[in-house]
Amino acid sequence: MLRKAGLAPIGGLPDGVSIQPCFNGGSKPFVYIKDGKTLTSQQVWELANSQSVYQAEDPAAPKATALSEGSTSTYDNSSSLNTQLNVMGNALLLVNDCCGENLDESLQVAQQYESTLNNILTDEQKSEAEALYNQFLDYEITSAADGALGTVYYKGGFTISSPEDVNKLNPIASTVSKFIVAGKDRYETLLNGRDYNTVIDEVSKKKLSFNSDDWSFLTSYKFLLDTLTGNDD
Fold first, then answer.
1. Phi/psi of residue 10, each to 5°?
2. Which tens digits make up the pLDDT trace of 45-73?
3. What is the pLDDT of residues 5-44, one digit of tens each?
């Protein structure tokens, strides 16, 4: 029996997307290809999100766990916590584009989940999130020409219209930092000792599959982690 899976293909990549190994000795073991063009991980995620996909009713998926022992989370079981993380992860995917009017929308989304994350995090995790955020603050602002948009600016993997917008960007990055720490245990459990690229490769070859909630969280978490750190692999 098959059922609707949600955000992304469980047994592989979006329709028409393939993986091509890299042999140039660089940091990327493979690239995503569609119609002869290379796609970024963000483009692959957006394409997957737009497609209707199916999966087996009972995929072989690692089991996610709750926060570590001693957590002061307001959620009393892993299911409710995982549901909260999924909702936040999917919503926060909107915050990477902070150009023009998108900045205020991104800030509103981030502020919506700030108090929830503060309730989820233990004191130790709050310190870890603060350290991650401080690392983001140390990143330099860079710029690049972007066609009709003119010059755009980057801090980490976030895009902004001007350096002055960083004052509104910072609280967005702070919320993402808290999400990254709150979901760290689940993310590492789902990877199960593998790195993310290896998991993607095994999923594309149908050697590994996830249920829709786990796959949605895994891909959104990695996207937000890369946005915070400026990593685009």
1. -85, -40
2. 666 655 533 333 333 333 333 333 333 33
3. 233 333 345 667 766 654 444 434 456 677 777 777 666 6
Q: What is the pTM of this model?
A: 0.69
* Residues 174-194 as b or e (16 or more Cβ within 10 Å = b): bbbbbbbbbbbbbbeebeeee
Question: How many CB atoms are located within 10 Å of the residue 34 CB?
Answer: 16
Residues paired with 31 in a beta bridge: 20
CB neighbourhood size of 85 (10 A): 25
DSSP 148-201: GG-EEEEETTEEESSGGGHHHHHHHHHHHHHHHHHTHHHHHHHHTTS-HHHHHH
How confident is the model at residue 8, as a pLDDT?
36
Contacts of 8 (CB under 8 A, 6+ apart): 14, 45, 48, 49, 53, 215, 216, 219
Query: Which candidate, 135, 221, 131, places its Cα nearest to that of 184?
Result: 221
